[in-house]
Write a structure and sequence with these properties.
- The protein has 502 residues and is mainly α.
- Strands 1-2 form a two-stranded antiparallel ribbon.
- A hairpin with a 2-residue loop joins strand 1 and strand 2.
- The longest helix has 37 residues.
- The radius of gyration is 29 Å and the shape is globular.
Length: 502
């Protein structure tokens, strides 16, 4: 045999040996992590818990940022004399609801035990430690820690409370926000939350669907605001001889900044309601949420132009908000085409609703149609457009009418809307009535005319517009400066005393 052939065979044998050794090493390297994972079964679970916890906290922060959106929206729709009290109200309500919801609200909404079909009965005054869990039947499937779940559910409660006051701004006593906010966060909101988020009768037995809160958050807040508005009455000058007067807000750019902040926050609101990052469903929810908002803004623009022949700036923003409210309930259940339909219908509802309601009720920011009527539509739309496979995926109810030909899910949605509205209205009206008969709901006529900034807080949100400021243009001498409640003689006397020699 030629030496070249012998050399070739030896080289081939050597190469085969190297390949076999390489394959053995590769196999061993692949099997080592598997063996380690088999020995440490908590490694994968820990990674999933961390991912879900980070996701829930981040989206909760987005929802909390919606408080800034509500502040800017209401400031923009308010007159200059009332802007400071709006910001104070938002911060105060966020604070009191935090404590009330931690103390008892979370337990009523998601706790186990008690009369569970009606209300939760555990988890009051919760304490947390790193990685701790609580037995929360409706949301135990999420591996996020109990503290993350608490925070996410709290910021939903805070949003619902913020919605209440949009109907009542510019004439409500500041103390009312606190007196109503505490029981709202402690019981009223948790009751509805338990029924549709927490495993109560409407969700568990009836199969009513509300993925992120068209009813739980938005209809609840709007219904409570409606109850308060009926007892509060309109702003001075709103209605004359049975006809409504326009009372425009002072800053539409700020109002629309509020809309954009809310739109941004909704990407935490709806996708975060998965309470889960690892099943990847949140990405689908992002898409349908954005499509609905876009459709609502465009259709609201077209609708208001068809009715008034103007492209009303406020209505465009209201269209986006109403669509976001409407898609909140079905966001985890519907396909993109349905989201566009849902948002478009909401755009029509809010324009027609604002124009109709304004004839009878003074709702400065359009909260009743944007959060109330759109919330009803969004909840009912689950009964029309829910995809059966997504209903099964989420474990609640069944498919909608357009997929199944059955009215069963639509009926469940209608019952949920009616029951929630009646319960919230009865409790809120009763609570506002008690407040009205004790401390009162409304500031005096003089205080309302002067503005709540100065009458309730002793300062203006825009001081240069109302008082002399060093370096600014001074007002005429008879214009109130520091305290408009003092008589002209007192003001003059003070000025002379301050100007006299020591």
């Amino acid at each position: 045999m030629p030496r070249s052939s012998i050399a070739f065979k030896k080289a081939l044998m050597k190469r085969k040996l190297i390949l076999v050794l390489a394959a053995a090493v590769t196999m061993a390297a692949a099997l080592v992590p598997i063996a380690v994972m088999a020995d440490d079964q908590t490694a994968t679970q820990a990674a999933g818990i961390a991912a879900d916890t980070v996701w829930v906290i981040v989206t909760g922060c987005l929802v909390m940022f919606m408080q800034a959106g509500f502040a800017m929206l209401e400031v923009g729709y308010s007159r200059m004399k009332n802007v400071g009290t709006i910001v104070a109200k938002v911060v105060t309500n966020l604070s009191v609801s935090s404590i009330a919801y931690w103390a008892v609200g979370f337990g009523f909404a998601f706790g186990a035990g008690g009369w569970f079909a009606f209300l939760g009965g555990s988890g009051f005054f919760p304490t947390f430690s790193p990685g701790s869990q609580l037995h929360l039947p409706a949301i135990d499937a999420s591996t996020a820690t109990a503290s993350a779940k608490w925070f996410f559910e709290f910021v939903f409660c805070a949003v619902s409370l913020a919605i209440v006051w949009g109907t009542m701004i510019e004439r409500t006593k500041f103390i009312v926000y606190i007196l109503f906010g505490i029981p709202f966060a402690a019981f009223i909101y948790p009751l509805i939350s338990h029924q549709l988020f927490g495993g109560g009768f409407l969700e568990a037995n009836l199969g009513a669907q509300d993925f992120a809160g068209s009813t739980v958050v938005h209809l609840t807040g709007a219904t409570a605001g409606f109850a308060g508005l009926l007892l509060l009455g309109p702003r001075i000058g709103k209605y004359e001889k049975g006809r409504p007067n326009a009372i425009p807000g002072h800053n539409m750019p700020l109002a629309q900044l509020g809309v954009l902040i809310l739109w941004f926050g909704w990407f935490g609101f709806n996708p975060g309601s998965t309470l889960n990052a690892t099943n990847l469903h949140f990405a689908d929810v992002v898409v349908v949420t954005n499509l609905a908002a876009a459709a609502g803004a465009v259709v609201a623009l077209a609708t208001v132009f068809a009715i008034t022949k103007t492209m009303d700036v406020g209505m465009i923003g209201n269209g986006a908000i109403a669509a976001l409210v409407a898609i909140t309930a079905p966001s985890g259940y519907v396909e993109p085409w349905a989201a566009i339909v849902i948002g478009a219908v909401a755009g029509v509802i809010v324009v027609v609703g604002v124009l109709a309601i304004d004839k009878y009720l003074d709702d400065p920011v359009g909260a009743l149609p944007a959060h109330g009527l759109a919330g009803i539509w969004g909840t009912l739309s689950c009964g029309l457009f829910t995809v059966p496979a997504l209903a099964k995926f989420n474990g609640v109810g069944g498919g909608g009418l357009f997929y199944t030909g059955s009215f069963h899910q639509l009926g469940a949605q209608a019952i949920a809307v009616a029951a929630s509205f009646l319960a919230v209205f009865a409790m809120s009206y009763g609570l506002f009535w008690v407040i009205k008969k004790t401390v009162g709901l409304r500031v005096s006529t003089r205080e309302e005319l002067e503005g709540l900034d100065i009458s309730e807080h002793g300062m203006w949100g825009y001081p240069e517009s109302f008082m002399p400021v060093p370096g600014g243009v001074y007002r005429p001498p008879d214009t109130p400066t520091v305290n408009p409640h003092r008589s002209p003689e007192a003001v003059g006397g003070t000025a002379r005393a301050e100007g006299s020699p020591a």
